[in-house]
Design goal:
The chain is of the alpha/beta class. The chain has 2 domains: 204 residues, Spore Coat Polysaccharide Biosynthesis Protein SpsA, Chain A (Alpha-Beta Complex); 55 residues. Strands 1, 2, 3, 4, 5, 6, 7, 8 and 9 form a 9-stranded mixed beta sheet that branches. A hairpin with a 2-residue loop joins β6 and β7. α6 packs across α7, α8 runs antiparallel to α10 and α10 packs antiparallel against α11. The chain is globular, with a radius of gyration of 18 Å.
């Protein structure tokens, strides 16, 4: 049994999947299986993956597109490892990522997930996240902090598989912020550790999902409604709502977001 199962969801990433997969296969920790879930790609992703000669690769193509969250869940069903880690098909892991995260979680058994820093690279330059500008808890009981802001990027997650299953996996209905929504649910019942090192390079493009404002506010409003009672009990409900409204106002879509939030709060 491979100790670590790595899951890469991919959709039409024939140009980047090979380097992404290579950064997993070249990890200093070798006892892995790499599960690549092709989310019904229409490009040459399949032939590119099959050209990689490594018997640790498991390739599975979905008959229809499920989105990143659904594809990750499908990969987890195939996973045989005690631990699971998620990677993206256009990002690059640093070579010692898995070895360091495994060591951290083994020496901190109170944690069911360990995450790390991301080096975010764009045309404007690069920066690490989370960094010293982030004011909040980075490990332990993170639920109250994650209600305000997310610091856990999916490709940095290193999780005990049993804990992932207990939390119910990713919400397959979401096309945006599925990592934040999952981290919130996970953190309600599980402690999370933080490896204070950069573990991957993430390349951001203008046409990425994170740029889809409609999907962002749809999911954000849904999350506020789901966790409303917890926010109220912690005294942060108004703070969170005003933050979302402030961002929406800058994007000139405040009335639409206000109406959307009210709709979710009533359901």
């Amino acid at each position: 049994m491979s100790q670590i199962s790595v899951i890469i969801p991919t959709y039409n990433r024939g140009k980047t999947i090979k380097e992404s997969a290579k950064s997993v296969l070249d990890q200093t920790f070798k006892d892995i299986e790499l599960i690549i879930i092709d989310d019904a790609s229409s490009d040459d992703t399949e032939s590119v993956v099959k050209s990689i000669r490594d018997d640790r690769i498991i390739y599975h193509k979905l008959p229809e597109n499920k989105g990143a969250a659904g594809a990750r869940n499908e990969g987890t069903k195939l996973a045989k490892g005690e631990f699971i880690a998620f990677h993206d098909s256009d990002d690059i892991w640093l070579p010692e990522k898995l070895e360091k995260q495994l060591s951290y979680i083994e020496t901190h058994p109170e944690y069911d997930m360990v995450y790390g820093k991301v080096r975010i690279i764009s045309n404007e330059g690069s920066f690490d996240f989370p960094n010293e500008a982030v004011e909040g808890d980075l490990e332990g009981q993170l639920y109250p902090w994650l209600l305000r802001r997310n610091t856990i990027d999916t490709p940095t997650m290193f999780i005990r598989k049993t804990a992932f299953e207990e939390a119910g996996g990713f919400d397959g209905s979401l096309r945006c912020l599925e990592d934040w929504e999952f981290a919130l649910r996970f953190s309600k019942d599980h402690k999370i550790g933080f490896l204070n090192e950069v573990v991957l390079d993430s390349y951001k493009s203008e046409n990425g999902v994170s740029r889809n404002k409609a999907a962002y506010y749809e999911t954000r409003c849904k999350m506020i409604a789901m966790h409303k009672e917890s926010m109220i009990s912690l005294g942060i409900f108004d703070e969170v709502v005003m933050d979302v409204f402030s961002r929406a106002e800058k994007s000139e879509i405040l009335p639409q977001v206000q109406k959307l939030l009210m709709t979710y709060l009533k359901t």
